[in-house]
Every structure is written in C-alpha cells, then in structure tokens.
Amino acid sequence: MVVLGATGTIGQRFVSLLQDHPIFEIVALCSSERKVGGHLGEFWRLEDVPLDPDVAGMEIESLDVKRLVRAGIVAAFSALPSDVAVELEVDAARAGIKVFSNASAHRMEADVPLLVPEVNPDHVALVERQRSFAGGGFLVANPNCSITGLVLALRPLADIFEIGSVHVATYQALSGAGYPGVSSLDITANVMPFIEGEEEKMRREAKKILGAWSDGIVPSAIDVWANCARVPVRDGHLEAVSIPLAQDVSSQDVARILSSFRGEPQRRKLPTAPEWPVIVRTEEDRPQPLRDLRAGEPARARGMAATVGRIRVADRVLRFFVLSHNTLRGGAGGSVLNAEMAHRRGYFD
Ligand SMILES: NC(=O)c1ccc[n+]([C@@H]2O[C@H](COP(=O)([O-])OP(=O)(O)OC[C@H]3O[C@@H](n4cnc5c(N)ncnc54)[C@H](OP(=O)(O)O)[C@@H]3O)[C@@H](O)[C@H]2O)c1
After folding, report:
1. Is the domain of 118 the same as that of 152?
2. Centre of ligand 1 from the C-alpha of residue 18, in Å
3. Angstrom distance (rounded) from CA 202 to CA 206
C-alpha cells in the first residue's frame, strides 16, 4: 500500500489507521516535492495518535507511478488535492493500482463508485466498468466529508419513509479545510457562512450515493438543500437536519430505526466497521464534537460512527442533529472501509 499525500491532514489519518492494519501494510509514503527526502515523523501533527517508530522513519518519496508499480504496490490511498489527483489517480489505476481516493476529482464520473459501504455497497461493482479494471487497477472515491454522516442517517430513514427534500445547516470543523487551512484571524471567535462548492457537492453527491442500483445508478429523488458554515472547532462536522415527511412518525420510531441500522460492513465484520454505524443519544445537549467525535466500537472503529441526537417531530417535520468525524468517517476511515469491503468482495484477488 502507498499513501499519496501522506504528510497532509487526511494522509496522516490514513497512516494512523494503516500502521497496524490487519490486512493492509504501508510500503511507501508520497507527498509534494517540498517534503521528499524527509521522514514522516518530522511532519506528524496528530496529537491524538502515536506514530509507530518504523513508520516515523519512513522516507517521503515523490509521486512516480512507474516506480510504485516497480516496487510491487497494488493499492493506493489517495489524500491528494483534487487538481493533482485528477490525472495521477487515473495514471495509477491504468498502471494496475487499486486507488481509494478522498479527492473530489472523479467522484461524479459514471463508472466511479462514490462509496459509503453501509449505504450503497452494491455501487462498488462500477469498478468493473472502468477501462483499467482488466489490468487490475481501478478507482473508488469516497464522498465529501459533510455528506457522509448525513447519508448514514438518511439511508435507513429513506428505506422506510418517503423523503423528497432534506434541509441541513452545517457547523464544519477547521480540519475539513486541510493544513494550514483557514487563517486564524478569519476564524477565531467567528463563523464563516461560506465554504466554496460545499452546498452544491452535498446535493449532487447525495443523489449519487443514495441512488438505487439497477445495473447502474438511478439517482435518488432526494434533494439535499444545505447551508454550510465553518466554525472554530478542530475536528467533527455537526449538522442540523430538517426533513418534511408525508406521514405521521414518532421520534421514538426514528430513534429505533436509526439505532438498529446495520449494513454490509457490520455483517461482514470488517476491521474498521463500527458495530453500530449510527449511535443515538438521548441527552438534550448531544451530540457535541468535544464529547462524541470518537463514537464507534471496537477500538479500531472509533470515530467511524455518526452520532444523532435531539430527534424531534412536529407537524410532520423531523428534526435532528448529526455529528461525524470529518477526517476519519468523512475522510481516511471512509476510504479504508471502502478498501476493506472491496477486499472482502474479492476485488484484490
Ligand atoms: N480534510 C478533510 O476533512 C477532508 C475530508 C474528505 C476529503 N478531503 C479531501 O482529501 C484531500 C486531501 O485533503 P487534506 O485536507 O488532507 O489536504 P492537505 O492537508 O492540504 O494535504 C494535501 C497532501 O497532498 C500533498 N500534495 C500537495 N500538492 C502536491 C503535489 N503537487 N504533488 C504531490 N503531493 C502533493 C501534500 O504534500 P505537502 O505536505 O508536501 O504539501 C499533502 O501531503 C483533498 O482532495 C480534500 O478535498 C478532505
């Protein structure tokens, strides 16, 4: 395995999940020319995860697909900026590498699965339509960090209730903007009510992820109308959700549906799958980034569950808050889970 963009926010999360992974092994780390020749330990910023000394000593390499293939790399986790990912990920897939990407570059392409394995596991079969598939390479994307927690909550609800539109206001963490991200002068004691492209991405990605599978994706009729804001929180995207319903439902029913939801990763007991992908809190002041960011069991899946709270229904409008870890569930953890599922479905054989 290689981590592309290993020195960045998502890249370091990849390393934290892969350094002791039961299936995948880190063989190489790449970043921009700025850090080539340095060692990962010099650039490590995750204060909540100790870095394995052997991995800390690994040298950062330049992005050279031919060299990666010669080194026997079969899969890549990509945390590259989209403008770099756009060509490089395709080159890697065409060279026979299985690419699991966080970048937005290829998310909306018809033959690229935009995967959240609890929500749309069958979409992974799209990789078989990619030109590179015959040579062993393919590309799987995971969605924008602001949509992942939301679709985890919407999947079980949309399977039972008729949902036409979803209104969501986001409170998005600073780490969602990468490193060094937003200027401290802009965000300290402040809220920025604009994140470029985010509201549009949420709408179009939700349509693809929640789309039915019938020998291809039939886009979902659900419209997600988002208002996105950046807030001075380190990690964790909190979202206030309102959903008009066509029928009477109680908040207890909604809580039961969400907390009993399980998907293919749970049934297959994938290493990074949380036992329960949606955790429902009943306290009046939860979920909070400070308290609920690391939701999910077992230990390897901490930060992989979405937490839902303050479920209310009035006049057939359902409201709740959902929180998810943007760099774990909405970032590196999502890609690692995608790779585990692809592996379990035989795409690495
Ligand atoms: N942050 C999130 O919550 C989040 C969630 C989901 C998806 N994403 C997506 O994930 C990707 C990475 O985001 P991030 O937040 O981790 O960004 P980041 O902190 O800015 O890290 C970017 C990484 O890419 C490397 N890089 C930059 N330019 C390069 C080049 N020309 N050639 C090779 N490597 C290059 C950087 O290397 P240097 O350290 O050497 O500059 C760094 O390792 C983006 O596409 C982003 O949209 C982010």
Report:
1. no
2. 17
3. 6
